[in-house]
Design a protein that fits this description.
Blueprint: E1 10-12, E2 15-17, E3 23-27, E4 34-39, H1 43-59, H2 66-82, H3 84-95, H4 108-123, E5 127-133, E6 140-148, E7 151-155, H5 161-174, E8 178-182, H6 188-201, E9 209-211, H7 218-225, E10 231-235, H8 238-249, E11 254-258, E12 263-267, H9 273-285, E13 295-301, H10 305-317, H11 337-352, E14 356-359, E15 376-379, H12 386-389, E16 396-402, H13 405-413, E17 417-418, E18 420-424, H14 428-436, E19 442-445, E20 460-461, E21 464-465, H15 470-475, E22 478-486
Parallel strand pairs: 7-8, 7-10, 8-9, 10-11, 12-13, 12-18, 13-16, 15-16, 18-19
Antiparallel strand pairs: 1-2, 3-4, 5-6, 6-22, 11-21, 14-15, 17-20
Helix pairs in contact: 1-7, 2-4, 2-6, 4-5, 7-8, 9-10
The protein binds nicotinamide-adenine-dinucleotide (NAD).
Residues 155-160, 164, 182-185, 217, 220-221, 224, 235-237, 240, 243-244, 258-261, 292, 391, 393, 419, 459, 463-464 line the site of nicotinamide-adenine-dinucleotide.
Domain Aldehyde dehydrogenase: 24-483
Pfam family, one: Aldedh
InterPro entries: Ald_DH/histidinol_DH, Ald_DH_C, Ald_DH_CS_GLU, Ald_DH_N, Aldehyde_dehydrogenase_Rv0768, Aldehyde_DH_dom
Amino acid sequence: MALIDGVSRLLIDGKLTPGGAGGFATVNPATEEVLGEAANADGADMDRAIDAARRAFDDTDWSTNTELRVRCVRQLRDVLGEHLEELRELTISEVGAPRMLTAGAQLEGPIADLGFAADTAERYEWTQDLGQAAPLGIPTRRSVVREAVGVVGAITPWNFPHQINLAKLGPALAAGNTMVLKPAPDTPWVAAVIGELIAEHTDIPPGVVNIVTSTDHALGAMLAKDPRVDMVSFTGSTATGRSVMADAAATVKKVFLELGGKSAFVVLDDADLAAACSVAGFSVCLHAGQGCAITTRLVVPRARYDEAVAIAAGTMGSIKPGDPTKPGTVCGPVISARQRDRVQSYLDLALAEGGEFACGGGRPADQPAGFFIEPTVIAGLTNEARVAREEIFGPVLTVIAHDGDDDAVRIANDSPYGLSATVYGADADRAAGVAARLRAGTVNVNGGVWYSADMPFGGYKQSGIGREMGVAGFEEYLETKAIATAAN
Ligand code: NAD
């Protein structure tokens, strides 16, 4: 792959270009080695990218030529597939993603899901005929047309970069929008390679996709503020989401937000406690807990609290954080020293709040390099503790006692977030009843999997606004126009 020769480039108006602010290092989080350099865009680059996206939307037939778009999105899927193995190695080294996860949401899943976006556009009912009526006594023929919103500014985080970049690019492009993607500064290359492949191996017209890597968060804010941008599609922390929403308010642009979570794993008193708590412990170790929808609060029957803590600690204590290149690794590094220190500060806070560690609690002694954190179970706290309320984004599970189903639902819902939840219980109707009362955008009952191209993903409350993936995720990128023609 001629993609990365030690330096990646921006994609602006169909051209691969260096950054106006030079370059910045991208680092392997498992080794702390510098992989190479990414183009560092400045404000002038972002301005040109927005201008290119605006012109591509206003002056070409991209938004109306569905056949072209469907072909281009499939082409992008196919070309990413042709470079799968190189992309896999890059994703493992830049993101620190365990190899096993690249078979799913870290790489292969989102590439395949581009096909769903293309298929949706191909069979979508763009115009709906509502027939003739006589509102106010005036004979009128009515139709409802769906069309692209316009220029989409996409701002993404580092944890599952392909998943998040492609779940925005695919539907937004298939729906007829043009885009400026500003990926996270921690994972610039995995986005830049998509730009190189688009420029060199697809028919996507110049300006339709622009990819602007930068260390400067203000470039994301530019997207949110600029009147030439019609919609901002943001995934990241709730704090940044708030700022994006405020910045977008001045131009009243459409805002789509996928934010943080503090999701609950509810174990009912008829559940197989050992199975449930092992699954809960295992899931929080995946990609070192850097998943917004990971269930990081384990809510268990009070009578069996100590047992539940011991089971979770048994599972998590046996998972050693390590080399993500190895096929058996579940828990790799966190993305950066900053993130590791942030997780550590929450572990320190857990002790200060009166909690105790049933396993883990710090950095693994056998990993001198890399940004590793031991899988950690925090016990002895209630849902009022800050470590039970705030997103930690590391391999950390807080175990909380409940006093029956109503109390479990109360605890699960007692959070500023509402991204995801899990319920385990032997009686399927009872578990379904609890699931129905949870205020969360995705709910797993007894191990069901909601991650799928045709399932909408997103959050209630401060976990976001709108849905990604599924037909709902496609329709986020559409406007609705009602046309009423006088019928004589
Ligand atoms: P972050 O909010 O710090 O940054 C996300 C992106 O926003 C980056 O590209 C960053 O450069 C940009 N940015 C920063 N400040 C900005 C501003 N003022 N205006 C516009 N853009 C700005 O998030 P992160 O630390 O990269 O990612 C971790 C967070 O993302 C976690 O909170 C996690 O829960 C969340 N997340 C949510 C989902 C979801 O779908 N709900 C998915 C993955 C991650």
